Every structure is written in structure tokens, then in C-alpha cells.
TrEMBL record:
This is CREG-like beta-barrel domain-containing protein. Residues 40-215 form the CREG-like beta-barrel domain. It holds the Pfam family CREG_beta-barrel. Keywords: Signal. Gene3D superfamilies: Electron Transport, Fmn-binding Protein, Chain A. It comes from Lojkania enalia. The keyword Signal applies. Residues 1-16 form the signal peptide. InterPro entries: CREG_beta-barrel, Split_barrel_FMN-bd.
Amino acid sequence: MYFVAALALLAGLSAASRLPSTQHIFSNPTSNDESMNRIPTVHESAVQARRILHLENIGTLSTIFPSTHSAENRPSDVSGTPIGLMDYFGDCEPSTGNPTILAISIATSFKNVAAGSNITLSLRWHPPGHHRPFSPASLPRFSLVGYLEELSPEDVVKQSVAVCFVRYHPDAAAWLPGNKIHESKWVRLVVEEIYWIGGFGNVAYIGWIPVEEWKSVTKEEIEAIRLPGEKKHRWGH
Ligand SMILES: *[C@@H]1O[C@H](CO)[C@@H](O)[C@H](O)[C@H]1NC(C)=O
């Protein structure tokens, strides 16, 4: 029994020794620490974020309930409260990095936007395979702040948006615009601000990424890097 308890304690201690000192877990250090690994630049962080946008396909849309509710039987005390809901996106406009979303008119996120809410899309990196990283808090995640804009019929055709989106989400073929079940339309989240948490603050950048950095990332840059836990080339899944 003592042996088992001692082992558990040792395991806990060795795990804890791999964590940065507490003050750097959720922020970058202010002074230059000699023992510190190099923190990626803002641009390198933007490249990581754009690669995550390309390889992931599910995120959380956060919107705010309006002050008045008409159609739906909704508790009135949720007015002004944010709600985050899972949704699909696709990296279908890679020249801008504006994610493509299939907006279902009756879904809460899009109703809130129609009622005047702002919106963010939050996503995080899931390393491939079933390996749970030592600390999921060490992995990159970020939020895209912006507004929804409907795609023109020309954009949809020219950029093969339906093909791109269904490649990410085969099941979504059932609710593409024009389907018989739900009214839906193609929108882009026009990215205006990016809040990035690259991981623990002693080895990753934590902070805002200017939208110019986000937009300036090239396909070659995205293809050239690997995210934590990525082994081989996964471009184009
Ligand atoms: C949405 O964000 C803008 C800033 O981009 C702000 O001026 C506006 O008040 C926000 N709208 C709501 C409904 O919170």
C-alpha cells in the first residue's frame, strides 16, 4: 500500500515538474528569463492558428441573447447572456482565412445574430490519434471575432463552397441551402480580431494577433509547420 501511494505521489510530482511556474501558465513572462524557450512570434502564432483553422472543422459560436424574445418560448432572464454552441465550419476561403459557416435560420446562434448580437468562433487544436496530451491546457486555442456576411451566389460557385464544406462535413449534405428540411444559407465570418492562447505562457504567445498578420499567412507557410502531436503531413486530410 505504501509503495502504491509513493508511486502515485512520485507520478504527480514528476508531472507537476513539467508545468511552468504558476505565474506563466496563463500569461507571458514580462522579463527575459535565460532558461526560457523561445516564444513564437505573433506571425508564427498566426500561421499556427491558420493551420488549426484548416485542419479542424468544429468550433463554438458564441452569441448573446437579445433583450426581447418573440417567436420562441425562451426564459426572459437569459437576455444579455452569452451562449456558446457547437457548430461546423470549413476553411473554404483560404485566401482570406474567413471561415465558411452554413447558417441554419432556426438555430439559436444565427437568430441571436439576426437580433443584433455580435459573434465569435472559438476553436482549439485536437492532436491526431487517441493520445491525450500531458496537459490539454498546453495546446493552442483561439477565438475569431467578426461578423457574418452572406456569400454571393458567384462566390459559392467560384470557390466551390459546397464541395469544400461537404468534404469537411459529409453529413451536412442534408442541410445545404435549398434542402427541404431547414432554411439555410452560406455565410463567412469576416475575421476582425483574433485572440490567441498558444499554450503555456513560458513557451507560447498569448495575446491578440492583428488581423493583417492573420490575412498575410500563405498556404506555403501553413503547409510547412507542424502542430503539437502532428507527425507527418496531413495537408488536405
Ligand atoms: C458589437 O460590436 C461592436 C464593435 O465591433 C460594438 O460597437 C457593438 O455595440 C456591439 N453590438 C452589440 C449588440 O453588443
